């Protein structure tokens, strides 16, 4: 009887934690931070911004770095974004350490 209560408690606690993880249904690409990379080209790419629940553009340099999505449509459809900024090549996201 003494072991029954702790076993029930642990089982309930484990079930609650699994429920939290199961609520996370977005693919990994939706959590991927954009990185411009080390090359100097200027390709417009997109990432999902969790705070604003929108897909935003950034400039990718053409090599290395991190490119979550090639198109705004792919970002919106994959991450179920409720809001997206209009495509604007002048507005870019820069990685840490990139020159201003």
Automatic annotation (TrEMBL):
Keyword Disulfide bond: yes
Keywords for this protein: Disulfide bond, Protease inhibitor, Serine protease inhibitor
Ranges where the BPTI/Kunitz inhibitor domain occurs: 30-79
SMART domains the record matches: KU
InterPro entries per the UniProt record, alphabetical: Kunitz_BPTI (IPR002223), Kunitz_BPTI_sf (IPR036880)
PANTHER family found in the cross-reference section: KUNITZ-TYPE PROTEASE INHIBITOR 2
Identification of the protein by name: Proteinase inhibitor I2
Source species of the chain: Alcanivorax jadensis T9
